[in-house]
Design goal:
alpha+beta, 26% helix, 7-stranded mixed β-sheet, 8-stranded antiparallel β-sheet, 23 strands, 374 residues
Length: 374
């Protein structure tokens, strides 16, 4: 895998209540991007945060799949701390649960942007619009639908991307085919519902910029780029939490989700700097920039059959194999060994990692929560 700079990286935490489809979603994303096999087997509940890094178009996506079981809440906190945006899975069958609130609250506590992914949309007992109403009721006006299903006779006939104002049908391989927008003949409820959905997304975007607000008040329609930029800005600031829907089993909506990862979610460089402390306790600014001094954080340590693996988030500078750094926790010198990324449990060697990236180091003489710097 080639080296990606911060603006071409998306660090996404998959979180949510146990049984809401997190790991199935990750598997379908890996399959859709050519990094895994298609499977109908329901995966066992995760007890550790796992990393899956893969390329999609001109981006590198680091997915951190966190446990939903409350006994392993510390693993979820580790993932949220290291990631960029928290994508919270909500089952279209069972709706908002305690784990939904826990993930959302922890994301807000740590200042992380959020997104809701409504899963299991193909289930015969699924009700997307009830779940959307529940999300709005429990998480407020920031909840903004972006991808919604068109339902007729209790079956999904297509999906509408409200940014593109385009409907898609999916074939048996999860490939999208453009189709007509819903009319009263297709779904009686959907025609009037669509007006409300468009109004909701426009109102949310209008709140992100004074010029957009003026355009909204005057009754003008936003362009597709204005919608993208407005939602992206709102996600970064925390004023918008987009909602999309997918079926991991049927692969429907997975391609659109990958597109929204790219367009709507923040790159590490969108958050210009973090505050840190130097050895004297003075506050220093740490910028997510390759040209800055190297600073990296060990957010997770895992033992595998071949030895210890340290999961590292690069805060600034470039981390390279062979670097001689200082462990700020102990004050001792430390040498960076073999670096790698992980995709579908496969270890892929890399020479370096840019500011904002997540990488794994083998046999590193450091512990979880240690800061490494030059």
């Amino acid at each position: 895998m080639k080296n990606y700079t911060g603006e071409k990286i998306r660090n996404i935490i998959i979180a949510g209540h146990s049984g809401s489809g997190k790991t199935s979603l990750v598997q379908s994303l890996l399959y859709k991007t050519g990094n895994g096999e298609r499977t109908t087997k329901i995966p066992d509940a995760s007890v550790y945060t796992t990393l899956s890094s893969f390329e999609n178009g001109d981006l590198k996506i680091n997915l951190l799949d966190t446990p939903g079981l409350f006994d392993y809440e510390g693993e979820t906190v580790q993932g949220i701390h290291a990631g960029g945006c928290v994508a919270i899975t909500v089952s279209a069958k069972s709706g908002v649960k305690v784990g939904t609130h826990k993930a959302f609250d922890k994301a807000k506590e740590l200042g992380k942007p959020t997104m809701f992914i409504v899963t299991k949309i193909d289930d015969e007992n699924a009700n997307f619009y009830n779940v959307l109403t529940q999300l709005k009721s429990e998480f407020g006006s920031a909840v903004c639908p972006v991808i919604v299903p068109v339902i007729a006779d209790n079956k999904i006939v297509s999906y509408v991307n409200l940014i593109e104002m385009q409907a898609y049908k999916y074939d048996q391989n999860g490939n999208a085919v453009p189709t007509d927008m819903p009319t009263a003949e297709v779904s009686e409820k959907m025609e009037y519902r669509m007006d409300g959905l468009v109004e909701a997304i426009s109102e949310a975007v209008a709140e992100t910029d004074e010029n957009l607000l003026e355009k909204f008040i005057s009754g003008e329609t936003f362009t597709q780029q204005e919608l993208i930029d407005g939602i992206h800005s709102g996600v970064n600031s925390g004023s918008i939490t987009p909602v999309v829907c997918v079926s991991s089993a049927e692969l429907s909506g997975i391609d659109m989700l990958l597109k929204e990862f790219s367009l709507l979610l923040p790159a590490p460089t969108d958050f210009e700097s973090k505050a840190g402390e130097d050895k004297n306790g003075d506050i220093v600014e740490i910028k997510c920039d390759d040209s800055e001094p190297t600073c990296a954080f060990v957010f997770k340590t895992l033992a595998d059959p071949y030895g210890k693996l340290s999961y590292i988030k690069v805060a600034s500078g470039v981390l390279k194999s062979g670097d001689e750094l200082v462990n700020a926790t102990t004050g001792e010198s430390i040498k960076i060994g073999k670096l790698m990324t992980i995709c579908n449990k496969k270890q892929i060697p890399v020479e370096q990692a840019s500011a904002g990236d997540i990488v794994v180091c083998a046999k590193l003489d450091a512990s979880t929560n240690d800061t490494l710097c030059n």
